[in-house]
Design a protein that fits this description.
596 residues; alpha+beta; Nucleotidyltransferase, domain 5; 4 domains; 6-stranded mixed β-sheet; 25% helix; Heat shock 70 kDa protein 12A; ATPase_NBD
Length: 596
């Protein structure tokens, strides 16, 4: 259980956490009152769900009209009669849109683009995401105003004083690019201002780390021992997030160390539905009920998939009336009968993905793992839980599932992340570095074979371009406050050239232990070997993560040489901090000037 202290701030604050899931989304919040211990609460009533007390999530669905205006969101988008209304008025549905935000990552080996419903016409993913964030914010505000004493005036005051912070969660595989798009959506939704101060009001947390905080908050890890390794599996609608930590209770405050690079796999519960849809489409090829495929799949998704427990019993999809029959397709009285073993095949890819990933992490960190915690909406599947537990028991792993509200793990855990920060060290998921010049050394065989590319600095030094300097190697354990630097200099024959510098941070995802050159990795296409700034293909092993610009016009510079041979130089450093869930990068310089 959480043992956090009282809030030591001087002003009242509100923290809102939005978990935008592939299929369902939720909201958690926390009031931070000076001198009081903060606690995590959840929004449990939404529009069109007023009759369902304790409803913690809403469908991640938006309907737009032909003018691009939002017409129905969340539970409103699945109410009775909505499909008929949408068809009559030619509305367009946006669902599973979260998957459009993803970039291909190291664990993502499948192209699922054709299987994801397209975005509405003339809508970008930022537009749709912003519309959904706007709706979640409105739901949170309404709920707090209705349930909090003097809720309307309290919320209005917090808005006026700009004392509302936001936490957005995302899959483990998402990085700077996705975070930037999410930040743009938060600005477009009006949650934060588009300024440095406004950006500070928004935090990001991976779904895996949020789920760890949820497990701690709910006492799931109370019996774990000092040094025990723990795998958190967040099984959601779109992704399976795998995160591994080591328990450290030897200090005054309990902390956790990340002990393996987090993973993200596209095997969430929507892929069970996709497998079922593919099978049913083939199965009904000769049946008149093929025209009802979409409706049958929806019925499977809402009932059969949720109830499935054992392959030993037949499963039924109830989709029609007693008049609907087709003996050849096992349809009687509006129900389709499927063998349990067939339904199991829809689930198996997800289960095997989880089992293989956990076993691989156990082997990678030499058996430190003792416990596995399964959370997320997909964790509610009894078949999935029992399958994982029985298979991982063979590796002496104890699999647990929180008793209540596993679907709220991410949003509740995101608030706990904001308050508690239990994870103090994290693992670099790939190698970070930058491309630049290196002084030419003809005795170095790698240099010599690239001699045709060398250029000469104004000072007469010969250099080779496109050399990759490693700032942080893959799988390095990094603390929250640890800095990593790469020092370099810029040199010109004319001091007026010092106006601005651009530094780029790149991530290397290939198999080389010590990548050094852009043209070294065989996975890179020759068409991508032209200029560093043009290499933005997500299929390449080098990926541009961010660009930092700095004004050099007022910096002190040093001089070298005299007369026509005089050159001017500024010494800089690219500084990276990796210990938080969002990478931070900046350019530093030295005030120490030497004139030689």
């Amino acid at each position: 259980m959480s043992h956090r202290g009282v809030y030591n701030g001087s002003v009242r604050k509100l923290v809102l956490a939005f978990d935008v899931g592939t299929t369902y989304s939720g909201i958690s919040y926390c009031f931070m009152d000076p001198g009081q211990q903060p606690s995590v609460k959840g929004v449990t009533k939404y529009p069109a769900q007023e009759h369902i007390m304790g409803a913690s999530k809403i469908p991640t669905i938006i309907y737009y009209d032909q003018a691009g205006k939002v017409r129905a969101v969340g539970a409103e988008a699945v109410r009775e009669g909505i499909e008929e209304e949408a068809a009559d008025q030619d509305w367009v549905k946006a669902e599973w849109f979260k998957l459009h935000l993803r970039s291909k990552n190291a664990n993502d080996t499948r192209d699922i683009t054709s299987q994801i419903p397209p975005l509405p016409p003339r809508k970008s993913i930022v537009d749709v995401w912003a519309d959904f964030l706007t709706y979640l914010y409105r739901c949170a505000r309404t709920y707090i105003e209705e349930t909090q004493v003097n809720g309307i005036s309290v919320f209005a005051f917090l808005c006026q004083q700009d004392q509302i912070d936001f936490v957005l969660s995302h899959p483990n595989g998402w990085e700077g690019k996705e975070q930037e798009l999410m930040r743009n959506a938060a600005v477009k939704a009006g949650l934060i201002k588009n300024s440095a101060q406004g950006h500070e009001k928004l935090s990001f947390v991976t779904e895996g780390e949020a789920s760890l905080h949820f497990a701690i908050e709910n006492g799931v890890l109370t019996e774990t021992k000092d040094g025990d390794g723990i795998v958190i599996i967040d099984a959601g609608g779109g992704t399976i997030d795998i995160s591994s930590y080591k328990n450290d209770i030897s200090k005054s405050k309990r902390t956790f160390e990340e002990i393996a690079a987090p993973q993200c796999h596209l095997y969430g519960s929507v892929f069970v539905t996709m497998h079922a849809s593919g099978y049913l489409e083939s199965f009904l090829t000769e049946s008149d009920f093929l025209d009802d495929l979409e409706h049958i799949v929806k019925c499977f998704d809402r009932t059969t998939k949720i109830r499935f427990r054992s392959s030993d019993e037949p499963q039924y999809i109830k989709f029609g009336s007693t008049r609907d029959n087709d003996a050849a397709c096992s349809i009687r009285f509006g129900q389709m009968k499927l063998e349990g073993t067939q339904v199991e095949e829809f689930f198996k890819p997800s289960a095997m993905c989880i089992i293989k990933a956990v076993v691989a992490q156990k082997k990678l960190i030499h058996g430190q793992i003792r416990h596995v915690v399964l959370v997320g909406g997909f964790a509610a599947s009894d078949w999935l839980f029992h399958k994982i537990r029985s298979e991982l028991a063979k590796f002496s792993l104890n699999v647990m599932r929180p008793e209540n509200h596993v679907s709220k793990a991410v949003s509740d855990g995101a608030i706990s992340f904001y308050l508690d920060h239990y994870v103090r060290t994290r693992i670099a998921r790939f190698t970070y570095g930058s491309f630049g010049n290196i002084e030419y050394d003809p005795s170095n065989k790698d240099h010599f074979k690239r001699r045709h590319k060398k250029t000469v600095f104004p000072s007469g030094i010969s250099v080779l371009p496109n050399h990759f300097t490693i700032i942080l190697p893959k799988d390095t354990q990094v603390s929250e406050t640890q800095e990593f630097r790469e020092e370099y200099y810029e040199e010109y024959a004319n001091a007026s050239r010092f106006r601005e510098t651009r530094s780029e941070v790149w991530g290397y995802r290939g198999n080389l232990d010590n990548p050094q050159w852009r043209d070294q990795d065989p996975c890179l296409s020759s068409t991508l070997l032209i200029e560093c700034a043009l290499l933005i293909s997500s299929s390449a092993n080098y990926k541009l993560l961010c660009t930092i610009q700095a004004d050099l016009s007022r910096l002190p510079f040093e001089t070298h040489g005299k007369g026509k041979n005089r050159v001017y130089r500024v010494h800089l450093a690219l500084v990276l901090l990796f210990g938080l869930t969002e990478m931070q990068a900046l350019v530093a310089w030295t005030d120490r000037v030497r004139n030689l």
